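Subgroup meeting minutes
Present: P.N., E.W., G.H.
Scribe: E.W.

1. P.N. recapped why we're keeping a running log of single-chain structure predictions: easier to compare across weeks, and new members can see raw inputs and outputs side by side.
2. G.H. added today's entry (382 aa).
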Amino acid sequence: MSTDRQHATYEPAIVRDASFYVERMLSGDGDVQVRPGDRVDPSTELATALVAQGRVLQLNVARELEMEPETVSRYLTKPIGTDFEEGEPVARARRGLRSVTCKAPVASTMTDFDESTGVVTLTPISHPQRLYACVHGEVDSVVDHRGVWLRVGGSRVTGVLGLGQDTFGPLRVAVDRADREFTADMVDSDFRGSIVLAGMTLGTSALRRLIEEGVRGVIVGSISDSEIRRYMTTGETEPSSMVIWRQSSSNLQHAQPFSVFVTEGFGRRRMAQPVFQYLAGQENQMASLLIPDQTDVMSARPTLYLSRERPGGDEAIQRINLQDGTLARLVDPEHLGVVVTCRSGVIDSPHSTGVQRQVVDVEFGNGSRRLVPATSLEVLIQ
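Output recorded in log:
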């Protein structure tokens, strides 16, 4: 085995006392309201835009009501140019002793009607999108009509999965151990407006109670995809896990933004002790949860920032060379989330196929040791 060659360095999951560049962008073109050099806090409005909630829809009323196209106009409930709420009847007719309706699938405006086909065109109603800083920092640069890059000083924790919207609030610690499950009876009125550190996992009832209490976000080690499906399902059919995690964040929007920040993954996995210990020591600090685009949840990872009011002279992120004593966790499916201590740097080890592979000697919590692929490790803390 050889350790002579230069190997890749690692960016830790927990980065302390560093300077970060944080991207804050609208989903489309809009108006940016700040300039380079401006100081911002989490509630600063950076930009605004009008965003349509979906694509233009073609609603075949003649087919839905089973009638001839030329007769549809007399059954429309409103004229062209008027708005409909989601689920409001666009057309209504009698069929024998019962009434049949064709409903608007989303809040929209009737912008056209084709009498020859009986098709109604619905344009989703545009809603204002307000982009907030969500962190303390300073505007470094402006991207015309789209958003800004912020320079932020403080600490950052990288998660594995995120659901919901970008949000912020003071960090509250709700459990005393990384392996403790958070239950509905543990919700406290003091949690209102905060980000709650909730240990290993939580279920549907606890999730609902947190939202009812006005909590802005929750941090857990893991979460069951079945609990998320149960929470978000309103009909008889439960959507798949991937559909749930790719749905628009508006599905988890209530009176205020709410987010679920997961540090380890699906299932019932305790939060890595170094992550829990670090976050528990930051109680009452302003915590910001930034959730990636919901269409890319399996590759983009959510981030938690503990930002200072002034960026200061924080250093750049220090990348880590694996060495004896480096604390890391395994990210391969078999050992996901298991915390280990490195007992070597990266080693070039010959494989039976003749191809060199890069491995690391690691020690498990029970004292046993084994060689694992270097790609299966994530450094936990600098």
